[in-house]
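Q: What would this chain look like folded?
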Amino acid sequence: MNKADFGVFIGRFQPLHIGHEHVIRQALDQVGRLIVLVGSANVARDPRNPFTFDERAAMLRAAFRHEIAEERLIVEPLDDHLYSDTAWVTEVQRRVNRLILDVGNGHGFGSHGLADFRVALTGYGKDASSYYLRLFPEWDNIQIDSQYGTFSSTDVRRRYFQRIPEVPASILTSDVAAWLDAFKLGEAFRTLLEESEYLADYPKQWGKGPFVTADAVVVQSGHILLVERGRLPGKGLLALPGGFVDAGERIRDAAIRELREETGISDGKGQIPPAMLGSFIEDHRTRVFDAPNRSLRGRVITHAFLFRLPERRKLFAVKGGDDAAHARWYRLGDLSPEMFFEDHWSIIEEMADL
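A: My prediction, written as structure tokens:
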């Protein structure tokens, strides 16, 4: 069989290890060029996704300098779309299509269309890629068996984020191992270690769930009301006002209570009463967000309520309270996904029609 013109390999590479590199090198033997899409490129650091897109792209460049210089290997970011496979597939297709037309036509000097290029999706022989293979039936399929045992990036992270961090050099290239050795001396590592320890202890104290929470998506005059988390997990990240539902409390009432406790939202007459806040809720827009891995604390299912406040030049007054370091209005156009705790950006995308 003739080589495919382009291969596509999707992964998070948290971090890159020799198993990934084996798949990439095997794929390069079977395709003309390989597009590596680095997933979860738009999320804040956490113990599951500790390294940024730029950091992971640098790992790939260090391991494949020659292939990248010759444009046989192309590295691109891929955002998460936690609640829409359609949006995720669309982004994959658009990124791949753009690169094929750009690179395949010599950066604008050719006239071939997408139909003139053969594309193959490649990945491990027995991993989760079998799920997304079904999402791209128009592409060929190249599955590659790993020759490097049963380890994964999860195992690397587990050994790395501890008080005496271990860099498993036997399954990492020298450049990646050296980078991890340097990273463990920085503030980002210390913050991630602290959060890892907190999350490891969390189920011992609270169990694994499922837990029920309520979040308030509060919009007014092109702004959204957010809090900065004042404690672990996600300390310093932006989040929706919200929290756990109390025993005997309705979920809708919990959203209103948490909104008042965390923001002190007020008009000219003082803090807005619960009944008035409730009148701003668009009940038909209420939605459950239940992605199994949405929280590293355990199985946390949240109900988001859209509060649409009256349009006015002077926004309602707010101040931080409870476990929020501060509460503040933000222009929607000034926000980006990596500023947010857990899946709160995805919730805003869905609820505020971004």
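The chain has a mean pLDDT of 92.
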